[in-house]
């Protein structure tokens, strides 16, 4: 086994998973670092506090000579923000070190591998990252114990302050995109659509995609990563409880290995073949699979045919609800979009709700909830909250004002008592979630128990959801994060039909912008043609978070 220099500091990032953190911490205990940094995110709600406390209790059992430095959050920051802040905090105090997450179990050789190479490449600007994971499935690259790569694998890794200090949103990123740099980089060119998407996210919002921002920093500075020829990290966290859960993730649970010595490679050059191999493994997996457009077309045609031939009528009341609280009324653009629901669904009643209507409704049916309703700090939270109350009491279909109907909606809602429209997969990717159960397209019979769960979550289960980040707080308390969380934990989820985004929200925000600029490719045209409705994600509520 490669000897570990105990003076090399370790950062352990944890949250709410005592089952996995126990295994990671046991490995750290075996090597006994002299400095251990512990960064723990806070609970998302009171129910989760017990799990967070259990995870923290495990890492409190330090029974060797060690300086333990802690950064424990009382409120939940979310995975991306928490990781980025924790690593920044670590490198503010240490010039170099090892970083582990709570579901990445290292081999004992990992620690010696990292400490040895941190020292070897300490002042070598050609090298920006040391990985612990190997995704070559037994294929050895080069003539050493490790090879060099243009990719930056994180989870279990080591790095330097000299690199991390430059990890930030790049104001020059638009130029990077215009130069089409990735198309000329052999290791990235076949997957440039994927990389451009994530690099764009990472450089436009500091709260998202810290790992891609880190990879981008190394790439544009022409730095290479060290990748071991043996897998030294086992990712045991790919369960449905994981923050970034991906079904059938190809790199989950790869057994970690031990090595006795390090043989340094003869040449410092990126192994393009290895990079292409690992990316092919990852991006051809179910992570990138989407419903094919011909399958969506088939599904749509089947729904229409079955409904017409069998004269099936929805169990859900034929009432379309839309809300616009401002008494001056919707903008001409929104009025035009809204008109599509009346024109294509003439056999449905249309109800428009303004502030006067909402106040009367609450006073008649939910007077006890008015104080909580009025206490929400943002208007959009009230707009969210009242839609659940309206549907629970009256039933019908609720759609946002920036939603256009493209087909009669009846076939979509036949034979169901409760239906929730999914958000586009691209939105889920942006939010680093496996999927998002939206709240902009919802239909139900009156009194459905799932909507009772939504109401309870909005009005009675938000005491521990802080407003450190307004946009996230809104999504988490009354918006799609909340509807997704309630669905995941619902006792009645088998009674809820999830409508694929391809049918009711086929376009991401970026694709909507292309449509508005008349940049409609054949692929976008097919998506629109195969849908029943289109959500334009105009997002006027975002301005509220800046006030």
Automatic annotation (TrEMBL):
Which molecular function term from Gene Ontology is one that the record holds?
A: mannosyltransferase activity
For the keyword Metal-binding, the answer is no
Checking Pfam families in the record gives: Gly_transf_sug
UniProt keywords (A-Z) are: Transferase
Q: Name one GO cellular component term.
A: membrane
GO terms of biological process kind: mannosyl-inositol phosphorylceramide biosynthetic process
Protein name in the entry: Glycosyl transferase
């Amino acid at each position: 086994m490669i000897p570990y220099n105990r003076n090399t500091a370790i950062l352990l990032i944890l949250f709410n998973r005592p089952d996995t953190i126990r295994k990671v911490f046991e490995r750290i205990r075996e090597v006994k670092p002299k400095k251990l940094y512990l960064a723990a995110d806070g609970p998302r709600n009171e129910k989760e506090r017990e799990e967070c406390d259990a995870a923290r209790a495990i890492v409190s059992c330090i029974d060797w000579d060690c300086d333990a430095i802690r950064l424990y959050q009382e409120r939940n920051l979310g995975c991306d923000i928490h990781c980025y802040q924790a690593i920044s905090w670590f490198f503010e105090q240490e010039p170099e070190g090892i970083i582990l997450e709570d579901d990445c179990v290292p081999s004992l050789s990992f620690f010696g591998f990292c400490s040895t190479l941190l020292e070897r490449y300490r002042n070598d600007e050609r090298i920006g990252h040391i990985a612990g994971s190997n995704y070559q499935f037994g294929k050895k690259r080069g003539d050493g114990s490790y090879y060099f790569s243009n990719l930056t694998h994180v989870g279990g890794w080591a790095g330097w302050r000299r690199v991390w200090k430059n990890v930030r949103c790049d104001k020059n990123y638009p130029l990077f995109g215009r130069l089409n740099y990735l198309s000329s980089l052999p290791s990235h060119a076949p997957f440039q659509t994927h990389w451009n998407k994530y690099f764009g996210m990472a450089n436009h919002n500091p709260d998202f995609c810290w790992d891609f921002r880190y990879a981008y920093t190394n790439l544009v500075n022409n730095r290479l990563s060290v990748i071991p020829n043996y897998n030294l990290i086992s990712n045991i966290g790919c369960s449905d409880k994981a923050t970034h859960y991906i079904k059938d993730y190809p790199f989950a649970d790869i057994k970690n290995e031990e090595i006795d010595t390090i043989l340094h490679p003869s040449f410092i050059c990126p192994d393009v073949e290895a990079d292409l191999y690992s990316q092919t493994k990852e991006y051809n997996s179910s992570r990138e699979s989407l419903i094919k457009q011909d399958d969506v077309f088939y599904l749509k045609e089947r729904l229409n045919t079955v409904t017409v031939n069998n004269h099936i009528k929805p169990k859900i009341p034929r009432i379309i609800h839309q809300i616009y609280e401002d008494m001056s009324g919707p903008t001409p653009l929104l009025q035009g979009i809204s008109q599509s629901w009346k024109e294509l669904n003439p056999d449905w009643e249309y109800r428009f709700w303004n502030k006067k209507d909402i106040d009367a409704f609450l006073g008649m049916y939910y007077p006890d909830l008015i104080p909580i309703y009025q206490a929400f700090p943002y208007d959009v939270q009230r707009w969210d909250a009242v839609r659940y109350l309206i549907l629970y009491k009256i039933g019908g279909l609720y759609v946002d004002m920036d939603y256009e109907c493209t087909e009669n909606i009846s076939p979509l809602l036949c034979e169901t008592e409760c239906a929730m429209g999914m958000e586009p997969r691209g939105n889920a990717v942006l939010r680093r979630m496996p999927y998002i159960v939206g709240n902009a397209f919802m239909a139900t019979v009156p009194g459905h128990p799932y909507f009772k769960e939504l109401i309870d979550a909005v009005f009675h289960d938000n005491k521990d959801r802080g407003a450190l980040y307004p946009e996230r707080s809104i999504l988490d308390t009354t918006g799609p994060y909340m509807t997704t969380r309630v669905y995941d934990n619902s006792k009645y989820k088998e009674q809820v039909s999830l409508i694929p985004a391809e049918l009711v929200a086929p376009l991401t925000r970026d694709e909507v912008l292309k449509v508005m600029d008349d940049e409609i490719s054949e692929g976008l045209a097919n998506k629109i043609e195969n849908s029943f409705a289109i959500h334009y994600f105009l997002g006027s509520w975002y301005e509220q978070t800046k006030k």
